[in-house]
Design a protein that fits this description.
Two copies of one chain form a homodimer. The first copy, chain A, is of the alpha/beta class. The first copy, chain A, has two domains: 141 residues, Thiolase/Chalcone synthase (Peroxisomal Thiolase, Chain A, domain 1, 3-Layer(aba) Sandwich), CATH 3.40.47; 239 residues, Thiolase/Chalcone synthase (Peroxisomal Thiolase, Chain A, domain 1, 3-Layer(aba) Sandwich), CATH 3.40.47.10. Chain A is 36% helix and 19% strand. Chain A contains 14 helices and twelve strands. In chain A, helix 4 packs across helix 14 and helix 7 packs across helix 11. The longest helix of chain A has 16 residues.
Chain lengths: 389, 389
Amino acid sequence: MRDVAIIGAGSTKFGELWGASFRAIGIEAGARAMQDANLGGDEVDAIYIGNMSAGRFINQQHIDALIADYTGMATNHVPTTRVEAGGASGGVAFRQAVMAVASGLHDIVIVGGAEKMTDMDDDSINSVLNATSDAEWEAGMGLTLPSLYAIIAQRLMAEGIATREEIASCAVNSHFHGAMNPDAQFRKAVSLDTVLHAGPVAEPLTMFDCAPISDGSAAVILCPLEEAKKHTDNYVKVCSSMQASDTLALFQRESITHFNATRVAAQQAYQAAHITAADIDVAEVHDDYTVAGLMALQDLGFWKEGEAGRALLEGQTRFDAGKTAINTSGGLKAKGYPIGAAGLSQIVELTQQLTNRAGPRQVRNAKYGLAQSTGGTGSAVTVTVLEAM
Amino acid sequence: MRDVAIIGAGSTKFGELWGASFRAIGIEAGARAMQDANLGGDEVDAIYIGNMSAGRFINQQHIDALIADYTGMATNHVPTTRVEAGGASGGVAFRQAVMAVASGLHDIVIVGGAEKMTDMDDDSINSVLNATSDAEWEAGMGLTLPSLYAIIAQRLMAEGIATREEIASCAVNSHFHGAMNPDAQFRKAVSLDTVLHAGPVAEPLTMFDCAPISDGSAAVILCPLEEAKKHTDNYVKVCSSMQASDTLALFQRESITHFNATRVAAQQAYQAAHITAADIDVAEVHDDYTVAGLMALQDLGFWKEGEAGRALLEGQTRFDAGKTAINTSGGLKAKGYPIGAAGLSQIVELTQQLTNRAGPRQVRNAKYGLAQSTGGTGSAVTVTVLEAM
C-alpha cells in the first residue's frame, strides 16, 4: 500500500450557525481545504463524508449525492461515500479515505465531516443522540448518553481512578485552548469552579462536562505521499489510521473505567507507525464528556491509569507545558461538537499543528500528532497517527 | 491491488418479518454466508454494512457497533463500518469491502446489508424514502419518489423510448423469476394486465410498478482470490466494482431518460474487467420502479435505447431466453426491497448463478454477472462485475 499525505485542511466556524444550511456548511470546509491544497475541483477523484444523522436532523438522507452535487463534482460523477458510526463518523470516514488512496484506487480524495444539529428542538436532538446507545437495552430503558457517561464517572470516582475535580478539569483544559481558536464555538476560558457548579445534567456531570450542540464542518485533502510536494509545502504524513469496535451497550463490558476499543486501536496505530505513546507531541481526544476525555488520556497510554486526572488538573495537558498537548483546538467541549465533523476537525487541528500554522496555541517542535474519535460509549473508536514532514 | 473473491453468500427471506428484530435479521444473513464459506467468527478481519436509515426506521443509529456486538465480533474488536447512499447503500458497502481486501489491509471481510422497515407506519416510511430525493427542492415541494419516477416514465413515453406496456413488463419479468426464489417476498407470477390495472400510485405507475416495503438482509464474504480455494470450491471473482454520482435533484439533469451515473459506472466496470456489455450472462438491476429497471438495461448497454422495453415485453430477459438474463432473483420488485440489503441481495443471487446453485432459475453456462445498485433517482450508482471461476 502507498503512503498517504494530507495536503490541505479547512474548517468552518463551529457554533449555532442559524444563517447557514447543511449544504452551505457542508461545502464550505471542503472549499477551504481545496484552496489550502491549491487544487481545482476537477482534480478530485473521490469524496468521503462523515455524517451522523442528516436523515433525522434535517430530513435529508443520501447526502453523498447532495455533497457531490453542491460541490459541482456530480458533473464529473465523482464517487461519493457517506459513512456513519455515531460520534466516530468523521474518524471512520477519514480511515476509509486513507484506504482509498493507500490502495492505489484513487489519487486525490477529499474527506469531510458535517452536521447541522440546531435546526431541531432540544428534545428531538436528544432522541437522535440517544440512538447511538443501545436503543433496546439502554435508551429504551430511559438511559441517555449523559447518564451513561455519568455512570462511568461515578465508577471512576468509586474506584479511585479520578476525582470529581480531575474529571471537571478536562473542560478547563479544552476551554483554555478554545479561547485561542477563532473557529471555536466557545472562545472563553472557564475555571474549575465554573464547571463544578454549573447546572446539573447527570450526577456528577454538569453542563460544562458536556460538549455542546453545534453546526459545522471540517475537511482535509489526501494524496499519495510522494505526490504531496507537487501541491504544497504544508503537508503531513498519515502514519496509520486504525479502528476497533466494542459492545454497543455499556452493561455488556467487563469494565467501564476504560474503553477497550481505544486501547486496541491505539496499540495497532502505534505499531503501524513504529512509535509509542511517548512520541506523541499533540493529541486531539474525543471529549464529548469530560470523563471520556480523561479516560482517553489513559487508554491512549499518555498517562497511567489514575494519573491523567492530575495531569489535567495541573495543566500538564496545555499546549505549552512540554508534555503531550491535549485538545489544542478546544476539543469537542469548546471548539464544538457538530457530530459528523468532529473526527475531521481533529485532523484539521493536527495538520495545522504539524505544519506550524496553529497560531497562538502552536505546540513547539511537534513531530507526531494523534486523533482519537469515539462513537456511543466507546463502541467504535478510530485512532490516527500523523507525522510532520 | 489484489484480486478479490466472494467465498460465501447468504440471505434471509425478504418480506414483512414481524417476528424478527433488526438485530436478528442483521446477523442471520451473515451467519449463513459464514456457513457457506466454512468460516468461524474469529477469522473475520472487518465488517461492512449497508443500511439506509435504521436511525429513523427503528430509532437506532450506530448499527456498526450493533452488528459487531450481536455477531460476537466486538469481542475481537473487529472494525465495523456502516455506509449509506440511499438505495445504493448495499452496493457502496460492497465496493468499500472489496477495496479493503484489494488494498491488502484486510484478508477476510464480511459485507452485509440490512433494513427493518415494517415497524413503522406507511406515512412515516414514505417520509424516510422521500429523504433520498432532494429534501429542499423535491420532497419539500411535495414530490415523492414514485412521482419522480412517474415523471421519468412520462418522458420515456413522450419521447417514444418505451411504451406503457413495455415499462410494466419489467414487473412481469421480475415476478416470473420471483416465483422460483424461496427467499422472495412475492412468489407469484403476474400478468401484464395485472400490472397495468393495479391501483394507481403516480400516473402512469401502479402498485405493481413499485417495489414493496420489506424487511431482510443479505451478506457475502470476501477474501483474496488466491486464498479462495482454501475455503470453498464455490467462489467467484470480483472483476470490478465502480461507483458514480449525479445531481441529487432530477430537474438539474440535461436528460431524465437515462442515468448518467449508471453509464459512467458501467463503462468503468467493463473497462476494468476487460469485457463489454455483450459478455454479461446474468444481471441484477435496480428495479425499485419498473421504469428504473427498464432504463438500466439501456444504460448498461444490454439493449439500445428504445429496445429494452420490447426485450422485456417479449421475455428476452428471462433466465432461459439465451440473452442477458435479468433479475433472476425476482429483483427488488418481487424478491423485495429492504433498502440497505438490496445491493447485497443482488450479489448473493449472482454468486449463486455463477456457482451453478440457483436451482430452477439457473442460467446455463453463466460466466459473467453484473449488479447495478441505485440511490435516489440515479444520484449514486454502483456497478459490479463478477466472473465464474
